[in-house]
Specification:
With 363 residues, the chain is an alpha/beta fold. It folds into two domains: 2-151, VC0802-like (2-Layer Sandwich), CATH 3.30.2130.30; 173-213 and 245-361, 3-Layer(aba) Sandwich (Rossmann fold), CATH 3.40.50.150. The protein has ten helices and 15 strands. It has helices spanning 12-21, 39-48, 67-74, 101-116, 173-182, 200-209, 230-242, 258-271, 308-320, 334-337; strands spanning 2-6, 26-29, 32-36, 54-63, 87-94, 122-124, 135-142, 145-151, 190-193, 251-255, 276-279, 292-296, 325-331, 345-352, 355-361. The strands form two sheets. It has an eight-stranded mixed beta sheet with strand order 2-3-1-4-8-7-5-6. A seven-stranded mixed beta sheet has the order 11-10-9-12-13-15-14. Helix 2 packs parallel to helix 7 (230-242), helix 3 (67-74) packs parallel to helix 4 (101-116) and helix 5 (173-182) packs across helix 6 (200-209). The longest helix has 16 residues, at 101-116.
Length: 363
Amino acid sequence: MQLFAVCAPGLDPVLLAELQALGYQGRAAGGGVELEGTLADVMRLNLWLRTASRLLVRMGEIKATAFPELVRKAAALPWEKFVQGAAQLRVTCRKSRLYHSSAVAERLHIAMEDRLKHKVHLLKASANEDGDGPQLFVARFEHDVCTVSADSSGILLHQRGYRGAQAKAPLRETLAAALLLAAGWRGETGLCDPLCGSGTIAIEGALIAMRRAPGLQRSFAFQEWPGFDARAFRDLVAAARAGEQPLQVRIEASDQDAGAVAAAKENAAHANVTLELAQRQLAQLTPAAGPGLIACNPPYGVRVGGDVRRVFRELGEASRRRPAYGVAALAADESAATAAGLRFRRLLKTQNGGIPVSFLGNV
């Protein structure tokens, strides 16, 4: 099957490298990576991908310039492989004669029911939804070609299942993992997040270091598909658990806010990982031998209550107390990051909470 692993803007190089490490060949495309795979691969990739938002299965491409043609061709798609009852449909149209997304969704609904020979309750999927609810189908109409895909993930993959309490401005798990992987950190050296918030970077680091599949604590849309092989999925989960390793590196997380440290402690417990947690200011970061990585998400945008340059200056000072540690950080303002006095280079550019940010590193 043709698959498309979706990711946040700019993360496709990291996602492609992640897929290659899992043994897959792919091609980076706008907003993700295209690849081929089987249903077994769909299950494995949902279980293991750390930086993808969702995994789509391409059902087919339809060239249509009139609605009757769209209905007729869409009725030939294998809807029955992915849905039994209700469904969600998300449609975007660009540079096509059939440009009205609601009208396209209506015709695809008709085609779906024609194929399935029964009524299907259809919900209009909001672009901002995290994927909860019935089976989601995604249709992209571009230059008169409609590409129809079935979402295999369900709730977006950044929702690992361990996050409970929230500190301010949480970082998505997929972005936290991408920051570490883009910095070249693979769980073989120490890790420290001195601005940890709810602990996402440190927890994702622990999962990487333990070689633990990030999807072990959640469910997926493919588990509701008519042809779902429950035994094969149980075998994949069992193999993933058998391949885990004990945590053998030091992973620290600290924050000056007591509520953030409490949230990080709770999330780490839900994730069943061990972190060294402390309440302290960035300026109080203690010296430590390396090698290792300081990775963090300093405040910016609406989160800023103080001076961003001061935060980066303290980050630079902290790193000089750990000379064998590299530094990786998110920054909405790269000029403010120069206050760290580090030779940062841009690792990636993406968005966090709708704000353009750069992943910077001196690694």
